[in-house]
Amino acid sequence: MRLSSFFAFVALTISVVTAHPGGDHEHTAAERAQKEASSLLPNIDLHVHEPIAAFETQRMLKRNRLRKRQTPTSTAAEPHYSTIQNTTCLTAPEVIEGPYYINNEYVRTDLTEDQAGVKIVLDIGVIDTVTCTPLPNVFVELWGANATGQYGGFSTGDNTHVHTETFLRGGYYTNANGIVEITTLYPGYYDGRTAHIHTMIHKDWKQHANG
Ligand SMILES: *[C@@H]1O[C@H](CO)[C@@H](O)[C@H](O)[C@H]1NC(C)=O
Ligand SMILES: *[C@@H]1O[C@H](CO)[C@@H](O)[C@H](O)[C@H]1NC(C)=O
């Protein structure tokens, strides 16, 4: 089901953006892979055995690429709305980030992967509340629970963080009119909170070679 009529409005100020710099965006894929390789291979001294370290870095990079089933998309369909519909220039209050944020997810406009559920297509407009003009090229990141209330990357049993799943996470950047269209699923219920989708807007962002 496609609900193009759903229009989400996100207002923000620069101070909100700088309060959420988006964590690990500065690290290169190789640095992150090396870090992960070190944590997964505690018995290998990566500095003493340089050739092994280089080999492991390559191996982990390849494995990570294979492990992420979804190929990131770097092209986006035009949003349904060409201009922001609600130009109310107010800062929306920041609310609970929650424990399920994972940074450095894919740059893509369809977050659904192989998850079953009711698709929703969100046209999200971002306005700078200082100048009250649309903000182009800011990264709108979403993350949400799947239809049965589970977050990708967190195990069902004890809620520990596992890195293998990427579903319903990621985002894309706003176009010249400050709008981005992202497809996700209607979030399932989980104990304690009304069904919701999280968002974080990043002003300083860049895309890595691995998506
Ligand atoms: C426009 O956005 C403001 C702020 O989020 C909201 O209070 C208002 O209800 C919205 N108006 C319409 C017509 O959607
Ligand atoms: C939601 O994710 C969990 C964890 O990966 C999975 O077990 C469950 O089947 C998923 N729900 C649906 C409806 O796909």
UniProtKB/TrEMBL annotation:
The keyword Nucleotide-binding does not apply. It comes from Sphagnurus paluster. SUPFAM superfamilies: Aromatic compound dioxygenase. The lineage of its organism: Eukaryota, Fungi, Dikarya, Basidiomycota, Agaricomycotina. Residues 96-194 form the Intradiol ring-cleavage dioxygenases domain. InterPro entries: Intradiol_dOase_C (IPR000627), Intradiol_dOase_core (IPR015889). Keywords: Signal. Residues 1-19 form the signal peptide. GO terms for molecular function: ferric iron binding; oxidoreductase activity, acting on single donors with incorporation of molecular oxygen, incorporation of two atoms of oxygen. This is Intradiol ring-cleavage dioxygenases domain-containing protein.
